[in-house]
Structures are given as structure tokens and as C-alpha cells.
Amino acid sequence: MGKGGGCIFSKKRSTLEAPDQDPPNPDRDAPVLSQNQTPAATTTAITVENSSSHEVKKLKVFIVFYSMYGHVECLAKRMKKGVDSIDGVEGFLYRVPETLPMDVLEQMRVPQKEDELPVISVDELVEADGLLFGFPTRFGSMASQMKAFFDSTGHLWEQQRLAGVPAGFFVSTGTQGGGQETTAWTAITQLAHHGMLYVPIGYTFGAGMFKMDSLGGGSPYGAGVYSGDGSRVPSETELALAEHQGKYMAAMVKRFAPPHSSVSGDSLN
Asked: Can you list the alpha helix ranges (DSSP code H) found in the chain?
């Protein structure tokens, strides 16, 4: 069984400046009125123009993950960097709920999770314009914590609230043959039943996908990392691939995805 170990995180100006322009002159700066235009109408027009210029909202990519020992979290944080580098798109990090009792986690020597990263609720998924799901492998498929999260999305499936939303995967495995590809492609069934759009990265990472001189996770299905016995730190190539996937997904969301409000079940029925 591959495990998602490794990369453990420790938990543990206001300046006033002189204006660079002349003070306002009421007579000089007053707007020029047309014959049928009143000062009030001019003010209203200016207000509407200014307000409309601030209505542009960034598209949202939610990076939703489960990381027992920290490897998947390493990829997720680097992935957010990639998403945020694309103009008009913003990435958000979320954990899924833990399902193991605390005493079991202590026996497995699982490090305490950072409080700064929120646990996502199922209903929050509909607020995303794109989704990236990360998880360690368990015998070649996703860990039970992530599976339990998907199992709780039944009411969203019933209403087709996630239909048409682009989504992708990234994974962690213990060994080279531990499921870098199977862990991702066995998860595609979750997207298919929701009508979501699976976005693999293919070989868009270029030469980085063909390096043979060092050990590295990842596949055309998505970014990946090898955890080994739990002590291995993700390589720079693995982290760079995760950042690339973040950029790639953000670009796809920006190019193809409509605002989340227009991909609800009602708009597809």
C-alpha cells in the first residue's frame, strides 16, 4: 500500500504622502453639462461608471486535498502558487474532514494539521469555477478520507450542481509502482457521475515529463509525489509540476468555464 507521508509542516505600513497634484478647484474641475443634463444626473452617471469598474471578480479554483503526512499538502501549496500566477484567477486551499479517530492518528504518528487551512464543507464546492482534488493512494485508489468526502456529495449530484465544472487530480504514492496513474484514473468515476469536466495535464509540462536522471512522481493524469517510507522530501521537479498544473487549470478555467452561478442544475435542465 502506498502512503502519503513526508514533507511535514511545523505548526508551530501606513504612510501619508503629499499629493502630487494641485488641490481641487471647483470652478475649473466642475463637469461640463449638456443642455438637458443636471448636476444630479452627472453625479449619478459618474457613480454608476465607477461602480461598474469594480464588478469584475476573479475566478475561483478550489484546491481540495487530504494529506496524512504532508506530501500532498506540499503539492497543494505549490499548486496554489501556479493558480495565483494567472491573471483573473485565484486559488483557495481546503482540507477535507478527517475520518480516523485521534487515538489512531497518534498511533500512526500523524503530525498535527495546521489550523490556518480551513476544512471545506460539501456545499462550498458549488462556489468554485474549477476544482483540483489531491489525495494519497490506498492500494491504487484514493484514500478513504477523500472517498468519504465524495460520498457525501449526493445532494449535489441529485441537483447536478457540479455539472460542467472543470476538475483535476494530484496524488502521492509510497513507491514508483504504487499508483501514480491508477490513483488518478480510478477517481475519474467521481467526476463522471457529477458531469464534471476532467482536465488532465497530458505532457504539457514538456521536457520535465521525460527526465530519467532522477526519481519523480507525476503523470499525464496529474502531478504526483513519491513519499517512500514517509521521510522523503518532494523534489523540485515534483513541486514544479504541481505549480504547472495550477497554472494549466487556471488557464483552462479562465478560457472555458462560465461563472459558477450559470452552471447550476437549473441552467442545464
From this structure: 26-29, 39-52, 71-84, 102-107, 144-151, 154-159, 182-185, 188-194, 236-256, 265-268
